[in-house]
Amino acid sequence: MKTTFGALSLLFMLGVLLVVANPNYGLQFGLGGEEWQKYRYTDQYYIEHGVEEVGGTNIVTDIVFDYRGYDTLGEATVLFTSIAGAIALLRKWRGEE
Amino acid sequence: MNSQNNDMGLIVKTMARVTIPLIGIFGAYVVAHGHLTPGGGFQGGATVAGAGVLFLIAFGLSETKNRINKTLYSALEGIGGLVFLAMGMLGFGVVFFYNTLWREGPVFNGEPGSLLSAGYLPIMNLAVGLKVYTGLVSALFAIALFRRWKK
Fold first, then answer.
1. Chains A and B: how many Cβ contacts under 8 Å?
2. pLDDT by residue (tens digit) across A34-79?
3. pLDDT exceeds cutoff 60 at B150
4. How far apart (Å, rounded) are the C-alpha atoms in residues B24 and A89?
5. Which residue of chain B is at minimal alpha-carbon distance from A68?
6. Interface check B21 vs A, CB under 8 A
7. What pLDDT score does B47 carry?
8. What is the ipTM metric for this complex?
9. In whole angstroms, what is the distance from residue A44 CA to residue A34 CA?
10. Rounded to a whole number, what is the distance in Å from the CA of B11 to chain A's nearest CA?
11. Are the beta carbons of A75 and A65 closer than 8 angstroms?
12. Is A30 left (phi over 0), alpha (psi -120 to 50) or beta?
């Protein structure tokens, strides 16, 4: 009984979200609204100029490694730090064994 | 030391022996073609690391301990990060992360869509793939070695 109720309420919440987040008649976040392409022109810019400016035909790699290179640098630093921390925490300590 | 000989049976070992090279080749393809097809350094490195984890699961911890050189792996991870940073510093004449190899460099400036194109993108993909592979494998190896609760 409880499980059925929970599943039904989850389904109801999903339906409400589907209605609210619909781009046609739901909420519209941020700038734009009707004329969103006027304010969100960067994705169109990447699609048009990415291949000639960076060279890769995979636009996602162009963005990740060139346009947003600092972001990827920080991501690599986070990975390095987390692995170093995991190994430093999980290694054999001097007092044991 | 009997608790460390926890490898799987013959069937799993044989299947792992067959599939590990295929997974490794697919991951290397994803890394090498990161600037042309969907995928890239992170995804391909994680795929190759999946082959390493399959080896760890199928063949057990003691066999993996003989094969994996921990010092080499940590050194390779540092080298991957440094190569990534050096590729970003290559365009310091203009600005950080300037793709100078693609604009006027001697190599890696072929037709868009060929393998030797896109400037520093393939080198960065290789560096990030190496970094992710060695990092994930050494992290999971450390987690597998950590068994203080067995006492």
1. 94
2. 666 666 677 778 888 878 877 778 888 888 888 888 888 888 889 8
3. no
4. 29
5. B97
6. no
7. 92
8. 0.74
9. 17
10. 32
11. no
12. left
